[in-house]
Amino acid sequence: MSIKALAPDVISKIAAGEVVQRPASVVKELVENSLDAGATQITVEVSEGGKQLIRVADNGVGLPADEVELAFYRHSTSKIVAETDIETLSTLGFRGEALPSIAAVADVSVVTRHADELTGTAITFKGGSITNKSKQGAPQGTTITVQNLFHNVPARLKFLKSVSTENGHISYLVTQYSLAFPEVKFSLTINGRTNLRSSGNGNLRDVLVEVYGLETAQAMLEIQPSEADAQVQVGGYVSPSSISRSARDYLSFFINRRWVQSRMLTYAVEEAYQGMLMTGRHPIAVVNLSVSPSDVDVNVHPSKSEVKFRSERDIFSAVQKAVRGTLVGYGSQHGRRIPSLLPNPVPTSAPLPGTTGLSVAISSQPSGESREMEATEPGTKLPILRVIGQFQNTYIMAEASEGLYLIDQHAAHERVRFERVREQQSRQTVDIQGLLEPITIELTAQHSEILDSQEELLAAAGFSLEHFGERTYLIRSVPAMLKQDAIRDVLFEILDALGDAQKDQWQYNIAASVACHGAIKSGDTLTVQEMEDLIRQLEQTHSPRTCPHGRPTIIYFSASQIEREFGRR
Ligand code: ADP
Ligand code: MG
Predict the structure, then answer these.
(1) How far is the CA of 542 from the centre of ligand 2 (A)?
(2) Which of 81, 272, 428, 535 counts the most CB atoms within 10 A of its CB?
(3) Closest ligand 1 atom to the C-alpha of 76?
């Protein structure tokens, strides 16, 4: 075959292959562009694993009308001019490849308005060429919609995994960026359902709550700051040795706020846990590294997710030392205690005077919803609630525009915890914590029989037990969500449940049991912040209005009911 130059559309598809490997790569490039544009709010929406639709909307600086087309030319970028600029780079992008690559393998439309301009621009690309361009009113910022990804690259399309796998990659990716940029408000919607939402309040621990749940987030240890003059600054959070995971997916690394995947950094962190975790267990960590941009080469791969350090060894030892120091420092300060949920709540709010008489006079929400268990039905979602106060240390009083809500704090927390466990069960990765001091437990013959025959099922639920004489056992590890003092009770409940129920049923029962023990109790005084956190988590559940036992979590008084009771109507 004689040598011929490739046609431009073939070249662009080949090049696109390196940048856009799967739907999550598109999300990555668009989110990076939004961050580079200075956005403080980034909304990501996907459907069908991103194959059908990916939409990223930001409130960044926007594109000037006369540059929108240019942004889609290969190697067009506003971020660098000369090659040496890479050495002082502060943006995530610089290769000018993402937009043209995406447009080569999908239908793309852009609506954008630059901060300095009054009208926005809408532009549509099909098959890499412009099909439509017009002026359009738009808020400041940029919304890019990508549809029919890989429709013209059947080979790629064939290699994509299931919708849920691709969704998983996207969710993981947005999670990483929300951890890297706590000051940016991220939201991810998958097939119309909120998957992730960060507040953008700048507090990394709050993002950890969103990502890993309240208990884990509260237990995470803040990496102690490096000396001010160190070449490498290491920050972030690591899990105490009492919390671990069976996969390495919970290690996140950011270099100068760029999310990177690095075996060397993974190894550095794991080394720091030497002798603290059981084999096969891995920590959770969010590690932020600041280094001089000239000490790191970000231009080693088109997807920019790998980097090269000028001095790997220095970075390795800085990370290992910082993490080890944090773990050791924590151990000596706190002994071997496992931090508990919501430590020492301090009351900061008093209930409003005169509100206590309401409960007798007014009836509850229509009863149709109260037996609803797992299904997501329209109308079960909560409105945005504002906390007013706590009633009898048992109910949270909150208002929305249309009425007043009384929320049972225990039932609500149970619901939140229950869905978390169910979710872990469905992923078949129940988070577990190893016990530093195993708990000894004495079982009845019947329970001991069940335990011996159902060891695998118990292990899947997060419990590992060891025979220690006749009917005595050592509990070595338990589900991470369980509080130390609830372990025995939950185990007994589970053994009871295993006695007769079917697999699906006992999984449900285990989740309900774990959810209940360790949930906030009635009588616990909560701060406004704690009540707000709980409501925010409740809002995100599929069935916020009932607890796992089917009892209501919320009683609602409409404003008109209240008006009627007061004879105002
Ligand atoms: P790069 O990010 O490497 O510069 P891209 O192809 O991703 O290349 O983007 C090209 C250019 O388009 C960027 O340099 C930037 O000027 C502009 N751009 C892309 N996305 C956005 C956005 N969301 N907001 C503002 N400008 C954007
Ligand atoms: Mg870019």
Answers:
(1) 35
(2) 535
(3) 10
CA 65, 70, 75 angle in degrees (round to 5)?
Answer: 150
pLDDT at 503: 61
| 141 pocket-lining for ligand 1 (C-beta < 6 Å) | no
Same domain, 71 and 132: yes
* Predicted pLDDT of residue 340: 30
Which stretches in the chain have pLDDT values below 70?
Answer: 330-380, 446, 499-504
Residue 406 in domain: yes
Residue 98 lies in a domain: yes
Task: Identify the H or E element spanning 404.
Answer: strand 403-408
Does 34 sit in the ligand 1 pocket, CB within 6 Å? yes
Q: Whose atoms come closest to the Cα of 37: which ligand?
A: 1
The model's pLDDT over 208-236, given as tens digits with 9 standing for 90+, comes to 988 887 778 889 999 987 777 788 999 99
DSSP 116-146: T-SSEEEEEEETTEEEEEEEE---SEEEEEE
Number of domains composing the chain: 4
C-alpha 273 – ligand 1 centre gap (Å): 40
CA of 462 to the centre of ligand 2 (A): 42
Domain identity same for 46 and 158 = yes
61 and 190 inside one domain: yes
**Nearest protein CA to atom 23 of ligand 1, as residue:** 34
Tell me if 93 CB under 6 Å of ligand 1: yes
Query: For 257-264, which contacts have Cβ atoms below 8 Å and span 24 or more sequence positions?
Result: 257/92, 257/180, 257/181, 257/288, 258/92, 258/180, 258/298, 258/304, 258/307, 259/176, 259/177, 259/180, 259/305, 260/305, 260/306, 260/307, 261/305, 261/306, 262/306, 262/307, 264/309, 264/312, 264/315, 264/316
Task: Check which CATH number belongs to the domain holding 142 and give it.
Answer: 3.30.565.10
Give the mutation target among 56, 99, 111 for probing the ligand 1 site: most ligand atoms within 8 A of CB.
99
* The pLDDT value given to residue 380: 60
Distance 33 CA to ligand 1 centre (A): 5
Residue 77 CB–ligand 1 contact under 6 Å = yes
pTM higher than 0.70: no
Any domain includes 427: no
pLDDT at 338: 30
pLDDT of residue 513: 87
Candidates 301, 303, 309, 214; CA nearest to 255 is 309
User: Is any ligand 1 atom within 6 A of the Cβ of residue 60?
Assistant: yes
Q: How far is CA 35 from CA 32, 60, 110, 459, in A?
A: 5, 8, 17, 42
Q: Are residues 237 and 368 both part of a single domain?
A: no
143 in contact with ligand 1, CB cutoff 6 A: no
Q: Whose CA is nearest to atom 7 of ligand 1?
A: 98
